[in-house]
Amino acid sequence: MPELLTAAQMRAREETAMKNGAVTGAALMERAGRGAVEATVRTWPDLAGGGHHAVVLCGPGNNGGDGYVVARRLADLGWTVEVFGMGDPQKASPDARLMRQLWEACGPVGQLSDAGHGTRPDLLVDALFGTGLGRAIPAETVTAVAAVKARSGARACRVVALDCVSGLDCDSGRMLLPDGAAPDAMAADLTVTFHAAKRGHYLGQPQSRSLEVVDIGLDHAEDDPRQRPAPGLLRRIEPGRLAPAAWLGSVLPVAPGAHKYDRGHVLVLGGGCGKGGAGRLAARAALRIGAGLVTLAVPPSALQENAARLDAIMLTSMKGPEGLADILSDSRLSCVALGPGLGVGEATREMVRQVAGADRATVLDADALSSFSDDPDALFGLLHARCVLTPHEGEFARLFPDLAEKDRSVSKVDAAAEAARRSGATVLLKGPDTVIASPDGAVSVNAAFYGREAPWLGTAGAGDVLTGMIAGLMGNGRADPHLAASAGAWLHVEAARYVGPGLISEDLPDALPGLFRSLGL
Ligand SMILES: NC(=O)C1=CN([C@@H]2O[C@H](COP(=O)(O)OP(=O)(O)OC[C@H]3O[C@@H](n4cnc5c(N)ncnc54)[C@H](OP(=O)(O)O)[C@@H]3O)[C@@H](O)[C@H]2O)[C@H](O)CC1
Ligand SMILES: [K+]
Fold this sequence. Notes:
The protein has helices at 7-19, 25-43, 62-76, 94-104, 139-149, 244-248, 277-289, 303-307, 320-328, 346-357, 367-370, 376-380, 393-399, 412-423, 462-473, 481-499, 507-518, and strands at 3-4, 53-58, 80-85, 109-111, 123-127, 158-162, 188-194, 208-214, 234-236, 265-269, 293-298, 314-317, 335-338, 361-364, 387-389, 426-429, 433-437, 443-447. It is an alpha/beta fold and 521 residues long. It folds into two domains: 3-219, YjeF N-terminal domain (Rossmann fold), CATH 3.40.50.10260; 258-518, UDP-N-acetylmuramoyl-L-alanine:D-glutamate ligase, CATH 3.40.1190.20.
């Protein structure tokens, strides 16, 4: 399911189910533990059956309760299981106390400080902290995990984290570690989370190689990527239950029988002599993703070099801001993309003023954003609901210095949401976890995690291509900016994964036809 929950939203789901008598906390815990064992064996089939060795580290709360369930179930399968706990059992919840007692019928609970003795196990289970983490985890927990991994023996100690890697702030994705701990001190091979993934699983740096969501019998909210996400719920951008073609078919401008003008006419403003590559990349991406027509407007001095490089993309001379007004008077233009390669300064600010004032679908990137570093409010005063900003963290910090990553006291999702509210535009804040936020509170994330990594996107021009893809998706002027930006971000990563290592930005637009075929379009 593509909904990503906060810790509070998860607790509310559990409490609602328990309050209306649908299930008890103990039953939820038992289902969680059972699901975790099943997911572990699915991930590592060689651990099926008995005769294996596990160490389970249990925390003071209900995450620890899950751990006791896992320990008992592994012992029932014939595993050798060692359990080490922390905290005063009398302070634990009744459910966690019950599960600890059921485990104690199978074996003892040792002190965390003793976890380093013995041979290295096949499996280390991190049941220390889950969604209830309130502050940096104690150093003793980091030490215990390291001690188990450091045990002597030839076995590869695989690590499974219950609900989340301990230390993960499930709302922001930040790791709350004690001073001096390595950022990956608690990293796992597999995280098994319950009912739904949490926001923190898809923000920041992924803390485990893979993530499995196991069902514990709670109701799921329906989510349709063809509709805007419900306010307050963070959507993970993916086809979900829909076939990719059903989802993308609703957002791509290419409809059966559509005339090229129905598919939109995108105008891309390009840079001057020798600075035309960014604009051409954006223009090609807009045409490839489905715009009916694309025109590249460049200064007279750059006409020749662009003409030599363009065929289906039309070219027009733009004599500075004055010339732009004349071009914008063409009502057939349905979307304008500007920023890449334009240069930072007053000329670019004037072009942004003219484009935004024309009240069309608009995508602003790079220099169109950085040109307002001295006066972000001057930019915000120009924007409207059909504008999409596509900053990377550096450009974002120039427009929203109080929300910059280095000083961010809120999550990346909340920072983007505040930026969208403040600017009145949809904000796509780039990164391996690209967050899209709209002024009405809709928020989505496209995370290239857990097997969707696309490190090759760290190449010159990849952002220009994304700008063009989003402009092409908004090309017909009717598209919802949030849904267009979401689909653009998702396709951008998929195109990069389709091309793979050796990718340069020129490959991305031309990968789209093959990618669309592979998606059944
Ligand atoms: N609710 C249910 O029925 C189910 C929950 N599941 C599992 O439960 C956890 C959430 O459990 P919860 O008890 O809310 O929280 P945690 O187990 O994550 O830990 C909270 C306890 O740990 C203490 N704590 C918090 N931070 C620290 C810290 N940095 N150092 C030491 N101790 C800490 C906290 O005590 P306080 O001091 O903060 O009062 C709590 O005692 C969820 O993740 C699931 O794994 C089941 O899966 C489903 C049913
Ligand atoms: K955990």
